[in-house]
Amino acid sequence: MPHLQPSRRAILAGGLAAAAALPLSARAQGAYPTRPITLIVPFAAGGSTDVVGRLVAQKLSEVLGQQVVVENVVGAGGNVGAARVAKAEPDGYTILMGTVATHALNPLILKRKPYDPVTDFAPVALLAVVPNVLIVNPSLPAKNVQELIALLKADPKKYNYASSGIGTPLHLSGELFKSMAGVQMQHIPYRGSGPALNDVVAGQVPIQFDNLPSASEFIRAGTLRALAVTTKERAPSFPDVPTLAEAGLPNYETYTWNALFAPPGTPRPIVDALNAAARKALADPALVERLKTFSAKVQLSTPEELGEHVKAETAKWTPVVREAGIQAD
Amino acid sequence: MTDLLSNLGLGFAVALSLQNVALCFLGCLVGTLIGVLPGVGPIATIAMLLPITFGLDPVGALIMLAGIYYGAQYGGSTTAILVNIPGEATSVVTTLDGHQMARQGRGGIALGTAAIASFFAGTVATVLIAALGAPLTRLALIFGPAEYFALMVMGLAFAVVLAHGSVLKAVAMILVGILLSSVGTDLETGQERMTFGFAFLTDGVDFSVLAMGLFGIAEILRNLDQSETRDVVRAQIGRLLPGVAELKQATPATLRGTAIGAILGILPGNGAVLGPFASYTIEKKIARDPSRFGRGAIEGVAGPESANNAGAQTAFIPLLTLGIPPNAVMALMVGAMTIHGIVPGPGVMTKNPNLFWGMIASMWIGNLMLLVINLPLVGLWVRLLKVPYRLMFPAILMFCSVGIYSIGSQPTDVMLIGVFGLMGYLLIKFGFEPAPLLLGFVLGKLMEEYLRRSLTLSRGDLMIFLERPISAVLFVIAFAIIAAALLPSMRKSRDEVFTEA
């Protein structure tokens, strides 16, 4: 994520700047916000996006001095909630917790597009990234990525891999792995990562791509073997697990991300106020620590960087989606 | 053994703190209330209360949420017995005999039996979770897709045999249920099926929408239709404690129900819903005089009630030991744990022993509280249920609509419960039972998933279902049940049994 590299420095600089600037900018715009803000989480209560959304909303409420209320608008893999924000009043009182699914993958997979991820939103700020991980059942005779690739090449028809569903970042991480490593595996989709983990732990399916948070307890307990994480850098919670790039697939990089979006045409001062509030909220060490417990890393950006990020993600996933042949009606 | 005792000691020390006892009580009370009120289920309630638990410590929060869940099982039985509306999906079977008992003026005994059977089952399930939690997780692990598929087939075979009236109508309802379950995005290909281009159908029909419509709304319509057969029992509630003779009848049923419910509850895939059905079928099959069933047989209350409570609690085993939610409520518990920074999974028992054992101990305390809340408060629940229809119906409709809307914020969900309500009403009028439809719906979705997954794993070879011993045995049982139901002699007696039910 080269376009995001400056943002880590920006966190420090921005955090300080925001701390100083917020009261000023708040005064400058007059009143915003004067009433509660609705944060639409396009996934069901209890999922990882919902958890991030609720944690951030709670902190945003303190920072903005107005309640930020989470509303779960579920359906169509996140599209229903995202479409609702795309069509909402651009007044800053309806905002979206977007993800890699709503703003990169779904628009590529669906032929009938309910919204355009670039033109139908005003990007506000990237919030956090979550690594994915390549895990195998410990009985599989592959101790590292190279051995796994050799195994898959030796018998291209034999092996299956599990993911939390068709068109999810995890399924596509697997497809990207297949195309970059030049190997074959049969994809077995599940309804969510829980049931998939169950079958991989039980040995029904030997290989899985999963979010690091949901898999981490199994890795620690030794019931699953982590071969590599999918991010450019190693995960702080698992310093011994190499990245796929280190393990022989240079340039391999996938991750799940969460970001705030507002409806298109939201006035710039409101977008800036939300961006500043997000920076201030995520500067709270307790919140950062809490996000870290499930391996979500705070990664902030400016509205422009987020806009570029959406375009870059779309460009990155377009060929993978095409090659996987999963375009739906 | 000493390990178990010291672990339980730790659990009770945690659960008996003033704050946790208070939270457990609050959870049980709220749970009973929402269980009594049809339409507002534990899923909607827990989802709505999740944010409030932010301020609590994780153990207390989870104790309260768990209390709501099993409290709702108790409350659901109260409505099932007194109003003939199953407050929860798991109390559907209780309506059959429980409501008849209430009409005969034995409502108090039915409620008392339900509470005592549930308490007994809860106690056994608590001990079971404590003692067998770790080894039992291996049971879930030997179940692969082929075994699950076979289990679902067996479940549907039970549903056919259990259904009222004609086998043909039952099979038809199951098939409609399976058909409804296939609406939505295909899991394997991502293609939309039978959505007719409506965005709100891309995730399929929600279980709670279907259940609320078919049972809640349809029931209201049916009651409006026949204004005088008001089902809230007007007969005396009578004494609450069953007599010696009744206890003698109920005890073996309770024991069997507990065993069945506990085993089915552990299996992921919502086995807990199957427990009461299975228990009722068995009680009826082994009874000396099956014709008593449907006319107020106490075994028909004790068996299913113990089964649903045992199942509700053993459903925590896969959650606490594997981090895998066997049903929607457990999925919300996963969410609650995650919010509090606890990663559900095999690490919980070792990393958060306070939470693991505290929750187990609180379940037993909660069950004791429920016994105390429910029996003396029956009068209050009855008064709540005796509110005139002109006040109660709009209130139930409002609760249903608010509850459904709160889950996904979809106006279309509210419209759909209306559509399914009308459909349920017509089905009742034409003599079709909605229960097999609901079961077909729940199992259909899973069956398709497991069938296709098994076949993908075997690269299309059907032998996978016979090569695996557990799957093969389950198939044999399923076919044996169907064959038995179709045998002319069995069929005759079955028809007698069910036409009277």
Automatic annotation (TrEMBL), chain A:
Entry keyword Transmembrane helix: no
Span of the signal peptide: 1-28
Keyword RNA-binding part of the UniProt annotation: no
Keywords: Signal
Domain of life the protein comes from: Bacteria
One Pfam family per UniProt: TctC
Family annotation (PANTHER family): BLR1237 PROTEIN, TRICARBOXYLATE-BINDING PROTEIN
Family: Belongs to the UPF0065 (bug) family.
Name by which UniProt lists this protein: ABC transporter substrate-binding protein
Source species: Methylobacterium gregans
Automatic annotation (TrEMBL), chain B:
Pfam family, one: TctA
Domain DUF112: 22-439
Keywords for this protein: Membrane, Transmembrane, Transmembrane helix
InterPro entries membership: DUF112_TM
Membrane-spanning parts: 12-37, 43-70, 109-133, 139-160, 167-184, 196-221, 319-343, 355-382, 389-408, 414-444, 465-487
Protein name in the entry: DUF112 domain-containing protein
Organism name: Methylobacterium gregans
